[in-house]
Amino acid sequence: MRNDDNLTAARPTFVTHLECSMTGERYDADTLQGLSRAGRPLLVRYDLDAIRAMVSPADLALRPADLWRYRELLPVRRAQNIVSLGEIATPIVPLNKVAAGAGASTLLVKDESRLPTGSFKARGLVMAISMAKELGVTTIAMPTNGNAGAAAAAYAAQAGIEAVIFCPDDTPEINVREIAAQGARVYRVNGLIDDCGKLVGAGKEANGWFDLSTLKEPYRIEGKKTMGLELAEQLGWELPDVIFYPTGGGTGLIGMWKAFEELEALGWIGSKRPRMVAVQAEGCAPMVRAWQGGERHATRWEDAHTLAAGIRVPQAVGDFLILDAVRASNGFAMAVSDAAILEAVDDAARLDGLLLCPEGGATLAAWRKALADGLIAPDDRAVLFNCATGLKYPMPDQSRTLDRHGPIDFTAL
Ligand SMILES: *Cc1c(COP(=O)(O)O)cnc(C)c1O
Predict the structure, then answer these.
(1) Tens of pLDDT along 18-63?
(2) Which residues belong to any copy of the Tryptophan synthase beta chain-like PALP domain (predicted)?
């Protein structure tokens, strides 16, 4: 039977409980939760046996191509709590000329720029805000480097929830304006994103805000998990050899890793996993330093700087989950320079017509470096994540001018 509308379809839910990602301690899923008592992220657990008995990949194929087609693996219990702006399945775009130029057979980009508010933050925030609505939240507060705040503001507007957003004072101008335009109160703070996070922590005590910081509530990761579900389905339930992920808080990398685990438990994929590559910028690479040092936790990166604002995260609450996934997958962590990022953005646009955001450019720069260093092979099937639209970022002015009143040598144009 065809379900014409993923949003209103009857939705038995399969959530059993929440679980501390560090200690395994169980928590009730039907009350508002933040971090675990151990101060670590909470993960949503499902009755996967019941899901396996209830749905199959063939059932999914009949549903509309959006994020809600995975509803059995998502936490929202009541359809009326879903806030949606049209979370479409994003395309996988090949970079054929870039691949050929590097001597590789293929290179694929999961182009997340097409999502509402122009970034994959929509996946996490549509879930977190829908759940906040379900659990009776009236005001959310959040730190952001730009895109998360924009997605939060948009979905909060739809949910009728107040949003208070704190961003570093040098956050891209368009993001700050976009957040305000979508009805949130946005504050520029003279600090970095973790400093903004501390303000949220202090403000929630005083004002009763709900803290929607990444991984400090259980549901953004469930939304980001859909990148892994969607990728698996789009590739015919056969995962790629390697995934390059631009890593800030790491929610997407952790979420995809969780998705693969759930898919294997469902029997929808086998045990093959992609190597997970955490890509960071040389000016802010706490995960790379910890990975190289064999540490399970990362220390704060001081004086963090990079033009790739989305991955300028000096300290991440899910550090050990990122590093565990990278190691378990036999992957690696790699830092790239801002110059290599700019070159990658320029090449993908000029050669293959795909305008990446700088963070997406970072994954391309890392792929090139990994290939050159022999960390991956030319025939490895690699997937890069382009997480936001390149249109939100400044582009160099390469225009020429013409005087229409003077003589024009058309052969020279
Ligand atoms: C948030 C963001 C990232 C980092 O994503 P995480 O899952 O938080 O690590 C990368 N790129 C862009 C454009 C972002 O907005």
Answers:
(1) 999 999 999 999 999 999 999 999 999 999 999 999 999 999 999 9
(2) 83-387
Choice from 90, 114, 121 to test ligand 1 binding pocket (greatest atom count within 8 A of CB): 121
Among 265, 229, 207, which residue's Cα sits nearest to residue 67? 229
Cα(195) to ligand 1 centroid in Å equals 17
Closest-CA residue, ligand 1 atom 8, reads 249
pLDDT of residue 1: 41
Residue 223 CB–ligand 1 contact under 6 Å? no
The domain tally of the chain equals: 2
Structural domain includes residue 84: no
Residues 161 and 234 in one domain: no
Q: How far is the CA of 90 from the centre of ligand 1 (A)?
A: 16
Extended beta strands in 171-272, E state: 185-189, 210-211, 242-246
Taking alpha carbons only, the member of 284, 300, 309 closest to residue 361 is: 309
**Pocket flag, ligand 1, residue 121 (CB < 6 Å):** yes
Q: How far is CA 29 from the centre of its chain?
A: 23
Ligand 1, atom 11, lies closest to the CA of 310
Same-domain pairing of 173 and 253: no
Q: What sign does the dihedral 264-268-272-275 (CA atoms) show?
A: negative
Q: Is residue 44 part of a domain?
A: no
243 and 381 both lie in a single domain:
yes
Query: Which parts of the chain sit beneath pLDDT 70?
Result: 1-4, 8-12
* Pair 127, 255 in one domain: no
Find out whether the beta carbon of 250 lies less than 6 Å from any atom of ligand 1.
Answer: yes
Task: Compute the distance from residue 112 Cα to the ligand 1 centre, in Å.
Answer: 11
Bridge partners of 27, per DSSP, are 18
The domain of 193 spans 118-213
- Write the single-letter amino acid at 187: Y
Instruction: Tell me: do 105 and 248 sit in the same domain.
Output: yes
Distance of CA 84 to the CA centre of its chain: 17
In this structure, the dihedral spanned by the alpha carbons of residues 148, 357, 110 and 49, taken in order and rounded to 10 degrees, is: -20
Which of the listed residues 110, 119, 254 should we mutate to test ligand 1's pocket, taking the one with most ligand atoms within 8 A of CB? 119
Could you tell me the CATH number of the domain that includes residue 167?
A: 3.40.50.1100
308 Cα to the center of ligand 1, angstroms: 9
Q: Do 257 and 339 share a domain, yes or no?
A: yes
Say yes or no: CB of residue 220 within 6 Å of ligand 1: no
**Digit-coded pLDDT (tens) for 168-192:** 999 989 999 999 999 999 999 999 9
Whether 251 is in the pocket of ligand 1, judged by its Cβ within 6 Å, is yes
